[in-house]
Prior knowledge:
By secondary structure, the protein is an alpha+beta fold. The chain is built from two helices and three strands. β2, α2 (about 60-75) and β3 (about 80-85) form a beta-alpha-beta unit. It is globular and about 50 Å long. About 20% of the residues are buried.
Amino acid sequence: xxxxxxNVDAETAVKTVVGRLLDKDAIDDIRVTWAEDQxxxxxxxxxxxLTKGHKRPSGAQTIELLTAMKAALLDIDDERFPYLSYSAPxxxxxxxxxxxx
Length: 101
């Protein structure tokens, strides 16, 4: 299997799980990228953009999502870990307002 096919299969598996476990009306977009994690291991980074007015999933829902995504990846012989993040309209990046020395 080529790396591109592997990534497409992983993206499909992860998006299917997210779509199944979260309220479809709450999902604006799902983005999956692949890169090395902080210790250099291959990983998937899953970013779920929520629609306006929907709350972030609870800790229990997030654990359920991570567990289901990992199982779906293992089902296709993909051992990468899925890192999950959420964003929503109105989220702002932190700004460093300190003066430089």
